[in-house]
Amino acid sequence: MSIRNLDLMFAPKSVALIGASAKEGSVGNVLMNNLLAAGLSGPVWGVNPRGGEIAGCKAFEDVASLPEAPDLAVIATPPQTVPGLIDELGRRGTKAAVVITAGFGELGEEGRALQAKMLEAAKPHLLRIAGPNCIGIAAPGNGLNASFVHVKPEKGNVAFVSQSGAIVTAVLDWASSRGIGFSHIASLGGMADVDFGDMLDYLAADPKTKSILLYIESVTDARKFMSAGRQAARLKPVIVIKAGRHEAGARAAASHTGALAGSDAVYQAAFRRAGMLRELGIEDLFDAVETLSTRSERRPILGDRLGILTNGGGVGVLATDFLVDEGGRLAEISEETVSKLDAVLPRTWSRANPVDIIGDAGAERYSHGMEALLKDKNVDAVLVMNCPTAVVNNLSAAHAVIDAAEASNKPVFTNWLGDKGARAAREAFQAHRIPTYETPTGAVRAFMLHVRHDRNQRLLLEIPPAGPALPARDLDKARSIVEAALREDREWLSEAEAKSLLAAYGIPVVDTRIVSTASEAAKVAEEIGFPVALKILSPDITHKSDVGGVALGLESAEAVSEAASRMVARITHLRPAADLDGFTVQQMVSKPDAFELILGIVDDATFGPVILFGQGGTAVEVVRDKAMALPPLNRALAQDLISRTRVARLLEGYRGRPPADLTGIETALMALGDIAADNPEVSELDINPLWADDKGVVALDARVRIKPAKSKGTARFAIRPYPVSLEGELTDRDGRVYPLRPIKPEDAPLIDELLDHTDPEDVRLRFLSPLRKLPRQLAARLTQIDYDREMAFVVFTDESCREAAGVGRLSEDPNRERAEFAILVRSDLHGHGLGYALMQELIAYGRRRGIGEIFGHVLRENRAMLDMCDDLGFTRHALEGDPTLIETRLKLS
User: Is the Cβ–Cβ distance between 35 and 44 less than 8 Å?
Assistant: First the structure.
C-alpha cells in the first residue's frame, strides 16, 4: 500500500488512545502522558471502559463515544480486542493506527490468524497500521509522541526507523544527553502493514528529514524495499544497521555458490545496490546518529583525503591506521602548507600529515594548524584531536577549532579524548553542530560514512559503458533443457546439460559429452582429441573431486578406459548408495595463464536471484574471496562486482602474467542475470571454474539445480529486470513504423543525440528550461529507471535502433494513484502524429498498471501539447503557485 495515509499517522490533527490508564507506570498511562506532553495542536482523547479522568483529561468509555473520528488511534488493549477496534475505528473514518499490543505474528499460528483478522478489518477502510508489538511512533516537529519511551524526543532532521523497540529506547536515551533530535521515530515491531519500504517512501519526500537511519532485522517485501531504498538514497543519506550477521548454523547447500551466499551477504548486496550505507554494531549506530545530526549541506565532503591535526603523535597514528583500513586516504599536505606551519609551530612538529603540534599546544597552535589544513587544496576534510594535558586548557583549544571550522566550507570532525576533562569541549562542539566523538575510530568512521555516501552516489550515477552487445540467447534451447529436467523430476541438470544452458546464453564452454560405459568414454575421447578430462556422472555426487570422480590430462583411449574403471571401483566403495549414470568426457583446454574464477546464481528467500563472483577452484569455500550483487547487471555494475574481490587485482595482470579478459567476465556475469530472468526454475548455478585469460573466458565445469518455480517470470526479482515484453512498434498517421522499446541505462548518449536533433525551443518546452546537453546526474536519473515504478519508451527512427526519434515517460507515485507523463519528439519529425501515438502508448501502459490518473505540467505557451492532450480527453487545471504552467489530467480508473 506504500505511503497512503501515512501523513495522518505522523501528522495527525487528533489522536485517541484506546487503552488509556490512570495507573501510574502502566503502558496506557505512560502513553497518555507522552501524548499530552508532546504538544499536539489538536485534541488527545483517552478511551477506557471505566470512563472518568486520565492525566487530567476526560476519558471516553468506548470508540463510539468519541466526539469525532481521530486521525490516529493508538491501541494498547489485549490482542483479541484489536481486530474489532480496528473495524470500529475504520467505520468511523480513522485512517491510521499504532498497535502497541503484542501477541500477534510472533506467537505462531494462533497469533498469525489474529493478525490476519486485524489486517482484514483495516483493508476496507484503507486504515494503515504501525506495529503490532511495537513501542510506538513520534514526530517531534509535529507535536506527536505516540510511544511509551522514557525520554521526550527532541526535534531534529534525522529519521530513525527500527524493528526493535529496545534499540529505539537506547538511541533516544543516548541522543537526549547530547541534544540530538529527530524528525521521525518509528518502532515498526511486527510490520504487519507499515514496513521499511513504506517508511522509506514517506521519508524520502519529507522536507523535515535530511537523513534516514534504519535498524533492520528482516525485510518483508524485497522489491518494495529496493525501489523505495533506491529512491530515498538518491535524495538523502540512508544508513542501515542490520542485525543477525552470523547464522547460527551453516546453511545446507549442495553448490559452492549456495555455501558462499549467506543471508547477510545477500543483505549487504541489496544495501549496496540501493545506495544505502551499512554500519555494523550499536557503537556504529550511535556514531551514525551523531554524524547525521550534524551533517551540513554547506560543508559537503568532496573527497576521501583526510588531514589530521593532533597534539599527540600516537593517537594520530592510530587514526591513520584506521583510516587506511576503512578505505580512506591520508592527505599529502602541500609544500606551501608545510612552509606556513614551519613559521608558526615548534621545530619539533611532525612536518607531515598527521600534523602533530606537540603536547603543549594551546588554542593559538590549533588555530594556526586548522587554518593551514583547511586552506590546503590536497585536504578534503580535517580531523582535529586532543589528548588531555595539565599545561594547557583544552576548552580554549576547542573554541579555536570552532572558530576555524565555522569560517571554512570544509567538513571538520573532532575527537577530544578523555572523560571528565573533555566534556566541556564536547558540549561546545555539539552546541555549534560540529561532529565530535569520544574515540579516534568513531571520528574516522564518521568521515568515512560521508566518503562512502559520496562513492555510493557516484555509483548510482554511473552511466554504463556501451561495451560489446551480449550474444543473442537461444531461449528455446534453454527452456527445452530446463523443462526436460522438470518432466523427469530431476533436481540437477547433468554437466552436459548445464553447459548447454550456459552456451545458450553465449557463455563459452568446453566440448563435453555424456557416455554410459568405460569403452564408450574411450571412443568419444578419440573423437574429441587428446588430452581429455573424465568425470563421473551421478545425481548423488555434487563435488566430484572429493570422491576421486575426476581424472585430468588423459592422453590415450587406454588411459581413459583404465581411469573410468578405477573411478567406478573407488566410488562404489566410498559411496555405495550413489547412482552412477556414466561419465562425461570433455576436451582438455590448455590455458597456462588462466585465472580460476567462480560465477554463480543462488535464489535467496527474501531477495530472489543473487549473482556471485569470486576466486574459484577446489578451495573456493576455504579462500572465500567472493562478492555478490542483485541482478539485473549492466556493465558498470558487473565491473563493480568484480572490483570488490581480492582476485580483481590479479586479473589486471602481474609479474608478466597478462591481464584477463575483463570484458568477457563482465559479459558472462550479465548473462547470468538473463538466465535467472528467463528460467525461474534455476535455484542454484555454479560455474567453477571459469577460466579467464587474455584470450577470453571458458566454463570448465557447471552445476545447475532445478526446482519448480514458485512465481512466474521475474516476479521473484528484488529489482525488476528490463521488460523485454514491452518491446514493440508505433505507427504515425502517415503509416510509418517506428521500433519502440523501454529505455536502458546505456541510452544516455542516445538521449544526448536526440537533444542535438531537437530545436532548443522544443527542448525548453519539454524540460521547462533551456538545455542543450543533459547534466550527468540528470542523464543517469532519466536512463537508470526503476521499471517497477517508472517507464520510459524510446522510439527509434528505423530498425537499426541507432537514432532516437522520441522518448515518452510515465513516473508513478508510490501508491500508484497518479503518474506524471513527459514526451519529447525530434523537431524534424513533428507534424506526423508520432507524439500522439507515443502518448497513446503511455495511456495504455498506465491502464495496464492500474494507475488512477496521469497528469503533466505543460507551459501555457506550449499550444501543441495542450491541444493534443485535449484531443486525448485530458482536462486542464491551473497550477497553484505557478501561473506559467497548466496541469493536464486524464482519469484512467
Answer: yes
